[in-house]
Amino acid sequence: MAEQRIGIIGAGIVGLAIGREITRRQPGAHVVVVDKEDRVAVHQTGHNSGVVHAGIYYEPGSLKATLCARGRDLLRDYCAARQLPYDEVGKLVVAITPDDVVRMDALATRAGANGVPGLRRIDAAEITDIEPHATGLAALHSPHTAITDFVRIAQAFADDITRAGGEIRLSFPVTAITRRRGGIEIGSRAGTIVVDRLIVCAGLHSDAVSRLAGDEPAPRIVPFRGEYMLVGPAKRDLVRGLIYPVPDPRYPFLGVHFTRRVNGEVEVGPNAVLAFAREGYRRSAFSARDLRTLATWPGTWRLARRHWRTGVREVYGSLSARAYMKAARRYVPGIGVSDVFRAGAGVRAQAVDADGALVDDFRIHRLGPITTVRNAPSPAATSSMAIAEYVLDVIGAQPD
């Protein structure tokens, strides 16, 4: 029997986790991961905040809730086995207004349904026991929320694939996907690859590449730039772990928060500003093609009508460091605008349906021998190993 060839488009952490899982389950298969960049984990994985989520926020029973819980445990064990950084610094979700407290208690019920380990509600005095420089009326404490280095994890997944005989083909921008009698042809300016099965994990370009594979138009990716501040060395010790606001359930972003990184730095952010390019890491980044795609998608305009007030506020915070830090100082008053400086940015591949609804859960489509990962936002990095299991279970459960 001929060796089965399985192609994966996208060398981010999800695509690499899937490739690794294939080598574990199907030792006779030949895995080929392709990516347009010259190294792995360049985009969403490479701009990730490094938080291993415990599963507080997600709708019980959703893929996010289920795969986050499973993925967290798999990731912790993998990091221990490979001696990769994994530090359970803990998270506080802090309520600073009475309305926050009401939403926080509802969030605690959701987190309980998701089996978040060790989660407890604490009062104002207990907040300062955990984070001496934080302030609030009450908080949820998640002691097992952790931080790691997702780029190093992705690189380890890539090493696992190549050690098992697979390939990582970089600088391979996909321009065509064609089904032929002999398999699925992946075309690129760098050459052609023919595979028996294909999995698309193209992140910021997932909609466009999925369309090449014959998938439907929806959902479409609307990119949001998340900008960060870094706390200067003199004030880093004011944050021990992770300090988050209570999120607005109407919006998929978690709000500006404080994050300690495994390298000792402390970030503030991110905000969420509409980007005018899929890879719009700078404010000046502009792509006529990407902007045309945004403008011609009806969901973009419906989304804008629904959330324009939030959008204006986010843009103001993007332009003004003082406005940006005004929200953050409500949680850690000792860190102000003079204590931070602008750092990098990431771009979130936010999937939006034609009706303007933000796609919150993971969304994975099956098209015979082709599987497309159409929406994999946070906590996709945390869930990556569990997403890999799920994708292969979906492939195995359905006929071509």
Helices and strands in order:
Elements (H helix, E strand, L loop, with lengths): L4 E5 L3 H13 L4 E5 L16 E2 L10 H20 L3 E2 L3 E5 L2 H16 L6 E4 H7 L7 E5 L3 E3 L1 H14 L3 E3 L4 E7 L2 E6 L2 E5 L1 E4 L5 H7 L7 E12 L10 E4 L11 E4 L5 E4 L3 E2 L13 H8 L2 H22 L1 H9 L10 E13 L10 E5 L2 E6 L4 H18 L3
Parallel strand pairs: 1-2, 1-13, 2-9, 5-15, 13-21
Antiparallel strand pairs: 3-8, 4-8, 5-7, 6-7, 10-11, 11-12, 14-17, 14-18, 14-19, 15-16, 16-17, 20-21
Helix pairs in contact: 1-5, 1-10, 2-10, 8-9
% residues in beta strands: 25-35%
Distance between the termini: 19 Å
The backbone outline, from C-alpha atoms, is globular
How many E strands? 21
Question: Which bin fits the share of residues in helices?
Answer: 25-40%
Rg (C-alpha, Å):
21 Å
| Continuous helix count | 10
Largest sheet descriptor: 9 strands, mixed
On the 0 to 100 scale, the average pLDDT is 94
Structural category: alpha+beta
Parts with pLDDT < 50 across at least 5 consecutive residues: none
